């Protein structure tokens, strides 16, 4: 005897099955176990006089077959030296069920035996060997063709012949020299995983293309058939490699005034002891979230958020010193004091600069500062005018050098995710200008 369930859903099912609408079950009501299949309460009461004729008195044939097969397999034992595959017939009640046992598992992709052509004679073997050799030769030829396939740089330059436009380098030979310099050193990929989907030629080309033309990561990814994450990994890796290989060697030490005299242009005839010509340039960048940083980076000259760096060139127009980038509000004097030039100056040296560099108090004894005269009187004297023109003719070359640097379009605007790499980007762009043709023709 079973009590009625307390769960409303089960109670409703039981009430529907027993069809006793004339009375409501109470806590004292019971149902005989004869109304349950196998006397089990789990499936509820289902055996009644009105459905007795509809019920099957035998067990499900599917379940019976499954249980018999499992039981048969458990009872089956193969002899020790029986062949790997044979038919074993085990008697069971009623019909016998043959079970095939195979000790070697067969993979789904296994080629059927009838599809394999087995050579039957020496001639068949020779024909098979010749066919395989022909296929190997075709694969080797295809491999060689793939190795000779032109890189993205080759394909682009064949179409446009504008090496400097896309890379900032004068020709492809310079590109190969730069690549050999980078390959001579060991460097690790920035994101920790090696890029194998592009050759080293294309990876360097992608980096130079980003610096020179400032294409978006989506455009570069579509052009080189790689993801944006791979573009970032390549760019940051090769940016650090370029900085490590070029910047310390090109901008580590300022050439002496005696070295500069070997290639002194005519515009510096009045400044033969010139060691370096300095000027500051600014790079627009993203506005930081911090109000304090935003205030520090706001340039009163540009009227926007910028980063500021100092560039120094030799009299022949070659860039010989590049500082890191500072907040846009930093004064020229503060940058000069911190950039590392003062420690390299010697007595007898001369510096050319703009009016904003009021740095006389910072210079070592014996170092001369040449800046345009201030108009502290109503009119310049003829000597002051001549001096002003002479300094302007010499200083124009640092302005031209800055223009070359700004031709690397990545410096037009540095986004927020590259601000932490801004000094590296700026210094690498300056270093790449050193591979270009001479800035002054008469040196």
Structural summary, described in words:
With 443 residues, the chain is α+β, with helices and mostly antiparallel strands. 41% of the residues lie in helices and 12% in strands. The chain is built from 14 helices and 11 strands. It has helices at 8-18, 61-75, 122-148, 152-160, 163-167, 172-183, 200-213, 217-224, 228-251, 257-260, 291-297, 332-338, 382-406, 422-433; strands spanning 2-3, 30-31, 85-90, 97-102, 274-284, 298-299, 304-313, 319-322, 326-327, 350-352, 368-370. The strands form 3 sheets. Strands 5, 6, 7, 8, 9, 10 and 11 form a 7-stranded mixed β-sheet that branches. β3 (85-90) and β4 (97-102) form a beta hairpin. α7 (200-213) crosses α9 and α9 (228-251) crosses α14. The N and C termini lie far apart (115 Å). The relative contact order is 0.08. Residues 1-51 form the THAP-type domain. Its cofactor is a divalent metal cation. GO terms for molecular function: DNA binding; zinc ion binding. Keywords: DNA-binding, Metal-binding, Zinc, Zinc-finger. This is Protein ALP1-like.
Mean pLDDT: 83
**How does the overall form come out from the CA principal axes?**
elongated
Element string (H = helix, E = strand) = EHEHEEHHHHHHHHEHEEEEHEEHH
Q: State the major sheet.
A: 7 strands, mixed
Oligomer: single chain
Parts with pLDDT < 50 across at least 5 consecutive residues: 71-111
> What is the total tally of β strands?
11
The assigned structural class equals: alpha+beta
Q: End-to-end span in angstroms? A: 115 Å
Describe the structure using short key phrases.
two-stranded antiparallel sheet, zinc-finger, 11 strands, 443 residues, zinc ion binding, zinc, elongated, DNA-binding
């Amino acid at each position: 005897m079973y009590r009625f369930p307390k769960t409303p859903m089960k109670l409703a099912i039981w009430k529907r099955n027993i069809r006793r609408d004339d009375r409501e079950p109470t806590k004292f009501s019971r149902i005989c176990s004869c109304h349950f299949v196998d006397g089990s309460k789990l499936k509820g009461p289902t055996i009644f006089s009105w459905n007795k004729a509809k019920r099957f008195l035998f067990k499900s044939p599917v379940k019976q077959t499954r249980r018999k097969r499992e039981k048969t397999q458990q009872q089956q034992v193969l002899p020790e030296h029986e062949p790997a595959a044979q038919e074993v017939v085990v008697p069971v009640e009623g019909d016998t069920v043959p079970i095939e046992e195979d000790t070697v598992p067969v993979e789904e992709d296994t080629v059927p035996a009838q599809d394999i052509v087995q050579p039957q004679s020496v001639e068949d073997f020779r024909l098979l060997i010749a066919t395989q050799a022909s296929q190997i030769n075709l694969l080797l030829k295809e491999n060689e063709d793939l190795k000779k396939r032109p890189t993205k740089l080759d394909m682009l330059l064949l179409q446009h012949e504008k090496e400097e436009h896309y890379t900032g380098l004068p020709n492809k030979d310079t590109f190969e020299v730069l690549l050999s310099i980078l390959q001579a050193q060991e460097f690790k990929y920035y994101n920790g995983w090696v890029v194998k989907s592009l050759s080293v030629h294309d990876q360097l080309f992608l980096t130079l293309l980003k610096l020179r033309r400032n294409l978006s990561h989506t455009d570069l990814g579509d052009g080189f058939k790689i993801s944006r994450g791979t573009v970032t990994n390549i760019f940051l890796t090769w940016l650090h490699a370029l900085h490590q290989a070029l910047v310390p060697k090109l901008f580590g030490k300022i050439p002496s005034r005696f070295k500069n005299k070997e290639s002194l242009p005519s515009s510096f005839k009045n400044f033969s002891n010139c060691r370096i010509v300095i000027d500051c340039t600014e790079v627009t960048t993203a506005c930081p979230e911090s109000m304090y940083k935003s205030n520090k980076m706001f340039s009163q000259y540009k009227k926007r958020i910028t980063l500021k760096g100092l560039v120094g060139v030799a009299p022949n127009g070659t860039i010989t010193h590049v500082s890191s980038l500072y907040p846009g509000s930093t004064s020229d004097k503060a940058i000069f004091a911190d950039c590392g030039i003062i420690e390299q100056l010697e007595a007898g040296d001369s510096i050319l600069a703009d009016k904003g560099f009021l740095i006389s108090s910072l210079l070592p004894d014996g170092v001369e500062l040449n800046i345009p005269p201030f108009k502290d009187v109503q009119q310049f004297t003829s000597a002051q005018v001549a001096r002003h023109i002479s300094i302007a003719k010499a200083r124009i070359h640092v302005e031209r050098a800055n223009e070359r640097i700004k031709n690397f379009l990545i410096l037009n605007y540095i986004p927020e995710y590259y601000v932490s790499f801004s000094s590296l980007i700026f210094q690498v762009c300056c270093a790449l200008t050193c591979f270009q043709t001479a800035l002054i023709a008469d040196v």
